[in-house]
Amino acid sequence: MGPVLCLVSAACFGAMAIFGKLAYASGVSPGALLLVRFVLGAALLVTLLLLRPGLRRTPVVPGRTAARVTPAVLVTALGLGAVGYAAQAGLYFSALELMDASLLSLVFYTYPLLVTLAAVLLGRDRLTAGRCAALVVASCGTLLVLLGSGEATFHPLGAALAFGAAATYTVYILVSDTVVHRLPPVTLAALVMTGAALTMTVRALVTGGTDLGFGWQGWFWLGCIAVVSTVLAMLTFFAGLRRTGPSTAAILSTFEPVVTTALAALTLGEILGPVQWAGGLLVLSSVAVLQLRRERPGRRGDGPPREPDRAGTRVRKDPVSVGE
Which of 145, 187, 245, 256 is 20 to 30 A off residue 180, Cα-Cα? Predict the structure, then answer.
């Protein structure tokens, strides 16, 4: 069941851009989308923690002293949502207004390569020949994705926002890696979502409020984003990660942009050209190669991995995330 759960999680995350496009078409603004998503997601996660007290316990790793939860850790978790995740989500959904969901997904999915490069520069990882090759191939793939876009689908500002979202998510992952082992995963997710909800609430108050007067269709798609592409996606990933290990979960996460592209073609009529397909395959194969090289025989069971918060991220033992 482990791989199935990981694929279900990737499919849920992959559908988020489609839900966002449909919400926009129903009159939902980006500000309303972000506000409702984070507030509803935080409420659902806090309710889950109240109903399932066992989820609040920090997993004990054999041979390792249990981490002590300090006020600084709690503030950092809230800050990750209030600053990092809120900024990343804002850039992502702003880009979604300007470009196709399928193209956005492929551009955003360069973040695992950005995390690898940043980890090497920070001294957290080594730059091997295989990783160099993967980075070069992924860069060429991204270039093909952008060059293969026609005038009707490519928007320079949208592409810049998408890269900005990937870069912001990279920083977010690297910071999350310093605290993710200090809190239970669902607790960390709830704190991150709460921090993001606070930021969006303050933003709405400062800007004079957010228009929530759209119809039931808009609320339906917002519910799908919060329930399916946030809470359900995160919980199924947790369950799958425990059964498969981080490397397998990382490789299976490359299914996410594939789902986005397929759903965009089926529901939105978005069709990628041959050059874009080639570029996307290069990016996804590079990510898979990076994760395969991290897997070592006999090491998968060496203690539980550092699980994600994927309120917006998935953080593992190594600093490369496996999701958006």
Answer: 256
